[in-house]
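This part of the workshop introduces the protein records we will be handling. To make this concrete, we reproduce a full record directly below.
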Amino acid sequence: MNVLSRIRASRGPAGPAGADGNRRRTLLAIVLVALLGLVLATAFYTVDTGAVAVEKTLGRVDLEEVQPGLRFRLPFLTQYRILSAKEIPFDITDLTPKAADNLSLRDLDVTVFYTAAPDKIAELTVKYAAADQDSPDGWYPAFGVVFREARGAIYDEVARVDSLVLHRQREQLQRSIQQRLQSRLDAEDPGVFVISRIVVRALNTDPSIEQAIQLAVQFQKRLEAKKIEVEIAAKDAEIEIARAKGIAESNRIINSSLTAEYLQHEINKALAEFAKNGGSAVVIPANMQGFQLLLDSGGFRRSREAARPVPAPAPAREREPAASPGNEQ
């Protein structure tokens, strides 16, 4: 009995202690698995297409960019930052620069599109450590630098153009801002940045400038209308000149064909026709340079009557001698 009692007594308290030990071991295993999963989860990361990663281990930046794909890092020791290598747009709004005529714009909004060279992004991260900008699409490399230089380029180029003509030179302004910004960036980091586009989205001038612009547009329209009228008048004059030249050429051709023989022939035909008319007279100059028609039918008739021969008077009949008285017997 004593032996059995001792065995039972020894087993009684050992059962719960063994169960607690099992629970501890199970909990420890779970913790270890969780830690291992956390380590594995943080040891791998993915870099998407159009981006690169820059790693930093114990404060030292690796200047070789990590290319897209599944990548491994030392958990808790190596940090990484994924930066965009695609075209990056950003807006600069509510600008009020002064134009060349010292008048300020009311509002100017510009969109800038830039790209950083993928093989230079790590160097940019070291050189401009505080200039990167976080965004939903990843970090923008050297964003602060490009933003600052873009503002300066916009103010410089607007100051070169009068406010009255800015609205008509929007495309030229976009090109000049792009060229100025590109030259600014190349001066510090040649071949690193590419300014692909500049878009002027809003360009609002002062109300007084707007009124002056409207007046200028009206005068321009009137000037264009006057120019059109002048062109029409010039074309009409050209038509009249051409018509006059045609008439003159026609007369020249006709005059060159009027020879003396042809004129004599026409005169003869006219005389033949006049001979059929009993009431006209024709006077022909001796030099045959022309002739006149004298419409004097009365004088012509008198001339014909004067030229007509007068008939001789009839001879008087002889009288018979009177009978003498002697003869009567």
